[in-house]
Amino acid sequence: MHQCGDAKETLRIRALSVLEKIDGDRQRFEAMADEPGQRIHSLFAGLYWSTTRAWLSFLADHSQPEFAYLVIMRFYDLYREASDVVDQTGTLPHHWQPYFGLAERQTYTHPISAHLILISLAARAHTRHDLALAVRRAYDDFQHQFGTCPDLTCYRNTVVSPDTDAAFRRAALEYIALHRRRQRGWRRLVLRLYAIGIRALRFVWLPVFQSWRAAAWDDACAWIEASSKRV
Description:
This protein is an all-alpha fold. It has one domain. The protein contains nine helices and no strands. Helix 1 packs antiparallel against helix 2, helix 3 crosses helix 5 (112-146) and helix 7 (165-181) runs antiparallel to helix 8 (186-200). It is globular, with a radius of gyration of 18 Å. The protein starts with a helix and ends with a helix. The model has no long low-confidence stretch (mean pLDDT 89).
């Protein structure tokens, strides 16, 4: 039991380090020139940091967070693989192409509504597609770490659960508040209206976001089940 507890604590620390890595990516993009396809990537990095922090906060009160910690680490690896394309050091996955294609035509001076579309494309690419692969890789990591297959039914609610709704809603509001503090004039007003919309329309956007997570989880489980039958 003591060794198991040590392993969980190690995973928690490693998962928390993902926040530092995402913030490092955000700062790297933020330091770039405000030219198409450069500094604009800091917007999604900021949202990704906020939602990851919310997820980790949710897991802090959960009795079985270990599998989700592994998913968070693998999830970041996939984000970094995609974001490396900005430095021309990676191969762009197909599902990220809409986001990067639009980013190549945007800067910070574009309307906030255009930024919202851009961020939504990144959120869908990462959540709907990368999450599925992250779960699959975390499944293998769990076997290696603990010497047994994870009970995906047991761990599902640490990755896909209505219980995370409040955490992700809070993350969206915190992100908008942070972004608003960096703006001036009418952009601050627009972001204030967006915050009101996040609260009032949470029954619209939040189910869509959670449906991406649920679909990614189902895809991963189907792949894992099919793979186990081939063995």
